[in-house]
């Protein structure tokens, strides 16, 4: 099978012009087939504040009411997605910006209301992801760039966590390609101590994950990121890595830096 890199870049990198520029140069230089998924949660929060629409989170997920879905559609599907595409084009990468609604690639279901009403948040089932249009774009030499938006098939855009979009696409495409899923953020990997940037854990399996959780080493966004990483590796994705945005290029070779998920 042909190799495919499915690469996700987080909001802290997108929000830092120096880190972002370096990341996009390295991403553009990666040879072979690749897909980029971007977040942008921090920018959406800032834009919402400017519009008088405050952000609320439960369990790390944004409560996406009617006003908020408009903000995130504009920010993720417009501002962030198109800026990334233009910068990749400037770096010689033939990027094409997409949401999950485009070509019906990522249908989703509005999260059912239980104790919490998350509003217009979409849950993805990997068997509903449409790989064929993505394959057509990849075979034509283009690099799809995904905003973290999905749709319900009835005309409603939905907000879906970018880490989840990345693992769902990686799983669906692993039927056609040998996929390496790489989560890029502003740390060198999963750390033994979140404040010590050099304390990288090289390898995490389910048992180590449970021990790290019990020891309170893992908090905040790294928990859903690891859940998505395990979902991918347990559903046919060949390799999953979590590392620094600066290491994206080396992480597409045999010399990996960061945390390998097994
Ligand atoms: N042990 C840990 N190692 C690395 N990051 C950690 C750890 N514990 C908590 N974190 C936090 O998790 C965050 C990553 O999650 P998140 O903000 O969702 O990433 P992204 O920017 O990719 O969306 C880091 O910025 C860090 O603050
Ligand atoms: C449902 C949900 O929470 N969606 C996320 C999508 C953006 C995202 O995932 O951005 P980062 O990768 O920068 O965190 C949100 O709106 O914050």
TrEMBL record:
Task: State what this protein does.
Answer: Catalyzes the ATP-dependent phosphorylation of N-acetyl-L-glutamate.
Sites annotated Transition state stabilizer: 8, 225
Primary localization = cytoplasm
Query: EC number(s) on record?
Result: 2.7.2.8
The pathway it acts in is:
Amino-acid biosynthesis; L-arginine biosynthesis; N(2)-acetyl-L-ornithine from L-glutamate: step 2/4
Q: Which Gene3D superfamilies match?
A: Acetylglutamate kinase-like (3.40.1160.10)
Concerning InterPro entries, the annotation shows: AceGlu_kinase-like_sf (IPR036393), AcgluKinase_fam (IPR004662), ArgB (IPR037528), Asp/Glu/Uridylate_kinase (IPR001048)
State the protein's name: Acetylglutamate kinase
**Organism of provenance:** Chitinophaga agri
Q: Which UniProt keywords apply?
A: Amino-acid biosynthesis, Arginine biosynthesis, ATP-binding, Cytoplasm, Kinase, Nucleotide-binding, Transferase
Presence of the UniProt keyword Translocase in the record: no
Annotated Gene Ontology cellular components are: cytoplasm
The protein's superkingdom reads: Bacteria
Q: Which GO terms describe its biological process?
A: L-arginine biosynthetic process via ornithine
Q: Does the keyword Translocase apply?
A: no
As for family, the record states: Belongs to the acetylglutamate kinase family. ArgB subfamily.
Binding of substrate occurs at: 40-41, 62, 159
- What are the residue boundaries of the Aspartate/glutamate/uridylate kinase domain, all occurrences included? 4-243
Q: Which residues form a coiled coil?
A: none
The places in or outside the cell where this protein is found are: Cytoplasm
Q: Which GO terms of the molecular function aspect are on file?
A: acetylglutamate kinase activity; ATP binding
- Per its UniProt entry, what is the enzyme's top EC class, as one word? transferase
Q: Which reaction does it catalyse?
A: N-acetyl-L-glutamate + ATP = N-acetyl-L-glutamyl 5-phosphate + ADP
